[in-house]
Amino acid sequence: MALRTRLTELLGIEYPIIQGGMAWTATAELAAAVSNGGGLGIIGAGHMPTAILRDQIRLAKQLTDKPFGVNLMLLTPHIDELVDMVLEEGVHAVTTGAGNPGKYMDSLMAKGIKVLPIAPSVALAKRLESIGADAIIGEGMEAGGHIGELTTMVLTPQLVDAVQIPVIAAGGIADGRGMAAAFALGAEGVQVGTRFMCAVECTIHPDIKARIIKAKDRDTVVTGNSTGHPVRVIKNKLSKMIEELDKDNRPEAVEELGAGKLAAAMRDGDLHMGSLMAGQAAAMVCAIQPAAEIILEIMSGAEEVLGRLGTLAE
Ligand code: TUI
């Protein structure tokens, strides 16, 4: 069983697994390792300065000759400049998060860059399909970082019914069972974020990897509801402080307290006052492994489940 889909065809990749575009986490090293492992590696731009993202794209091109992409976080103030640079440098694919990429679609498509927007709702997915998106990533609220309201279980089949282009399921998928479940819902690919945080090639602080491996089922919480940009994180001192500010409906204070805290976590390893963005699937991550091994484990697990279910249905 090879699990080839319209997505593997579209992107020219071996396995229908794309890596989440995690800011301060998904560097060129991780992206290249995922691409070399047969998936689609993604550099997470977040608020990265343009020159640094350019260097990251060039580094990834040195580390892999396979397709890879960039995730553009649309809330960043210099997003226009980042898009212009990505158009200059050229990458195989762009995933977008935290907004509507409509404004950039024509210029990206004109350069032959595949555009895979993240949509947390059916209405946005339909709109993005109508202006040329190549596939839609439906991200459920099990995911880490900034999330929508729906779960992967209900969002995925609704997207599959609503659009003709391939749907990639995201949020809560960390192993072959999750991938098989996503395929059962009609997805043609999966996006995996949290599990790749514990890839050997992921350059985040080792204490954060250890915290993810220790995580239990109820260890994440959604904070920042008062700001209109809810964010799932592993609970710590910072998340408790933000929850208090949310309760008092103080969005400006939440933004102020949260500033710079993702870097404090991922770069500096601050377990208490860093923003430990990770999905609910953190509880299912048990080891630090090479990215290629993670991909093969997910693939063989999915194939085993799908084969077993096929036999059961005979
Ligand atoms: O973007 C993500 N995950 C992220 S972005 C991020 S940085 C950040 N930090 C604090 C506050 C806000 C951002 C950390 N994690 N995932 C993809 C995603 N996209 N989740 C939700 C959305 C989304 C939300 C609204 C996509 C489109 C959208 O459209 C609204 C509109 O304009 O129609």
Question: Can you put this structure into words, describing what you see?
Answer:
- The protein has about 325 residues and is α/β, with parallel strands linked by helices.
- It has two domains: about 220 residues, TIM Barrel (Alpha-Beta Barrel); about 60 residues, no CATH class.
- The protein is about 45% helix and about 15% strand.
- It contains 14 helices and eleven strands.
- Strands 1-9-8-6-5-4-3-2 form an eight-stranded parallel β-sheet. The protein has a three-stranded antiparallel β-sheet with strand order 7-11-10.
- Strand 3, helix 4 and strand 4 form a beta-alpha-beta unit.
- Helix 2 runs parallel beside helix 3, helix 8 packs across helix 14 and helix 11 packs antiparallel against helix 12.
- The protein is globular, with a radius of gyration of 18 Å.
- The model has no long low-confidence stretch (mean pLDDT about 95).
- The structure holds ligand TUI.
Brief synopsis:
This protein is an alpha/beta fold.
Architecture blueprint of SSEs:
Elements: H1 6-11, E1 17-19, H2 28-36, E2 41-44, H3 50-63, E3 68-73, H4 79-89, E4 93-97, H5 102-110, E5 114-119, H6 122-130, E6 136-139, E7 145-146, H7 152-162, E8 167-170, H8 176-184, E9 189-192, H9 194-197, H10 206-214, E10 220-223, E11 231-234, H11 237-247, H12 251-258, H13 261-266, H14 291-313
Parallel strand pairs: 1-9, 2-3, 3-4, 4-5, 5-6, 6-8, 8-9
Antiparallel strand pairs: 7-11, 10-11
Bound molecules: ligand TUI.
The site of ligand TUI has 20 residues, from β5 and β7.
